């Protein structure tokens, strides 16, 4: 099946339908997404969308029974990022946008039955080991995608129209890839001559003040894409920071991402421009928004003096991006002087776009 999840789009497969051997599985995925001649940036012979946001794959299966060594969950979700133009698949990260469609896919494909008016499931994010508790609208035992008065509706900036809200609560995701919320042990470091905050609250990220790299922070994605000296500088920072974040050599990895921040312009927490890591996001990723909002709450981070904290955090933290805003809810506490981030909540939408067979090319 093909789903839109949040502001991303991808193919969804049942784990049981794919090879268990990772290289063979990846070969099949590349053939489905790119067709003959894997590495074609147009993906003209496959189902990929020729951008990183539309070249994604979710592999979903039932979780192992409790006590088997895996975290207690209902579904396992493995995310694959097809690296456009490179002819390869990455499992370095997970994707919070596509995750919004995992439970709808499981219901549509018979992996999990729908409950009453709503259905809730715990999803094991296999890439990072984190758990997300997801609730979808299922009136009459059928997944509702369209927003209505009966089920409510949600607007996801960066996506046209509205849809039925999908509630996603991420549980204890701090350090899920790097091992700790602040993998360098500091809230602020100097990397390649630029002050940064390196953190991982579900997504390894490097937060940088836009002004420190000669920008306003309000440039369009197209302007940033065309700025080759900037991209060279950011990649230099990313490679150096990757080592400090316990990620090793990140030359061919899709993490860490980079987020440029500036003072908010529309009453939000902060304004952002995100590199993921070499293209500029038209909006912002789910876990990227969570990590960015977290950085804004950390005393001494590079967001000090830039982020505008709301008087009432009950309504969440609004992260501004090129096509609107993304509201994040964070549970936080202070234990012996150390900031602790607990459950992180977001609202997404999803829609089933198509179902059927993908025909793989015959390769001589």
Write structural notes for this entry.
- The protein folds into 2 domains: about 1-165 and about 350-355, Diaminopimelate Epimerase, Chain A, domain 1, CATH 3.10.310.10; about 190-345, Diaminopimelate Epimerase, Chain A, domain 1, CATH 3.10.310.
- The radius of gyration is 20 Å and the shape is globular.
- The mean pLDDT is about 95.
- The protein has a 17-stranded mixed sheet that branches. Strands 8-9 form a two-stranded antiparallel ribbon.
- It has helices at about 20-35, 95-100, 100-110, 220-225, 230-245, 285-295; strands at about 1-5, 10-15, 55-60, 75-85, 90, 120-125, 130-135, 155, 160-165, 165-170, 190, 195-200, 205-210, 255-260, 270-275, 315-320, 325-335, 340-350, 350-355.
- The chain is an alpha+beta fold.
- It contains 6 helices and 19 strands.
Q: Total helix count? A: 6
Our estimate of the beta-strand percent is: 25-35%
Principal-axis shape: globular
CATH superfamily of the largest domain: Diaminopimelate Epimerase, Chain A, domain 1
Distance between the termini: 28 Å
The main β sheet shows up as:
17 strands, mixed
Number of strands: 19
Tally of structural domains: 2
Structural class: alpha+beta
Helix fraction, binned, reads 10-25%
The succession of helices and strands, N to C, reads EEHEEEHHEEEEEEEEHHEEHEEEE
If you average the pLDDT, what whole number results? 93
Quote the CATH topology of the largest domain.
Answer: Diaminopimelate Epimerase, Chain A, domain 1
The rounded Rg comes to 20 Å
User: What low-confidence regions span 5 or more consecutive residues with pLDDT below 50?
Assistant: none
CATH A-level architecture of the largest domain = Roll
Instruction: Output the CATH class name of the largest domain.
Output: Alpha Beta
């Amino acid at each position: 099946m093909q789903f839109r999840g949040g502001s991303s789009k991808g193919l969804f497969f049942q784990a049981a339908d794919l090879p268990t051997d990772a290289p063979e599985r990846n070969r099949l995925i590349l053939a489905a997404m790119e067709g003959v001649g894997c590495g074609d940036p147009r993906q003209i012979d496959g189902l990929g969308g020729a951008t990183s946001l539309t070249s994604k794959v979710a592999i979903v299966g039932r979780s192992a029974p409790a006590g088997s060594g895996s975290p207690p969950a209902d579904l396992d979700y493995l995310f694959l990022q097809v690296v456009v133009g490179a002819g390869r698949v990455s499992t370095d990260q997970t994707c919070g946008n596509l995750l919004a469609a995992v439970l709808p896919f499981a219901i549509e494909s018979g992996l999990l039955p729908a409950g009453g008016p709503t259905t809730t499931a715990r999803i094991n994010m296999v890439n990072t080991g984190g758990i997300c508790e997801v609730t979808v609208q299922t009136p009459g035992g059928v997944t509702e995608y369209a927003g209505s008065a009966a089920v409510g509706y949600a607007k996801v900036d960066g996506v046209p129209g509205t849809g039925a809200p999908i509630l996603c609560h991420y549980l204890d995701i701090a350090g899920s890839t790097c091992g700790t919320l602040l993998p360098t042990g500091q809230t602020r470091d100097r990397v390649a001559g630029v002050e940064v905050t390196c953190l991982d609250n579900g997504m390894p990220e490097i937060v940088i003040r836009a002004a420190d790299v000669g920008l306003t922070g309000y440039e369009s994605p197209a302007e940033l894409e065309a700025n080759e000296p900037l991209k060279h500088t950011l990649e230099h920072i990313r490679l150096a920071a990757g080592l400090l974040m316990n990620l090793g050599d990140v030359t061919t990895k899709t993490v860490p991402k980079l987020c440029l921040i500036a003072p908010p312009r529309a009453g939000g927490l902060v304004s952002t421009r995100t590199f993921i890591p070499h293209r500029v996001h038209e909006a912002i990723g789910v876990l990227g928004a969570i990590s960015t909002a977290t950085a804004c709450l950390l005393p001494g981070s590079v967001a000090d003096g830039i982020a505008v904290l709301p008087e009432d955090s009950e309504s969440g933290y609004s992260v501004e991006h090129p096509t609107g805003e993304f509201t994040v809810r964070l549970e936080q506490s202070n234990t012996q002087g150390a900031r602790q981030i607990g459950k992180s909540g977001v609202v997404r939408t999803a829609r089933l776009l198509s179902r059927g067979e993908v025909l793989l090319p015959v390769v001589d």
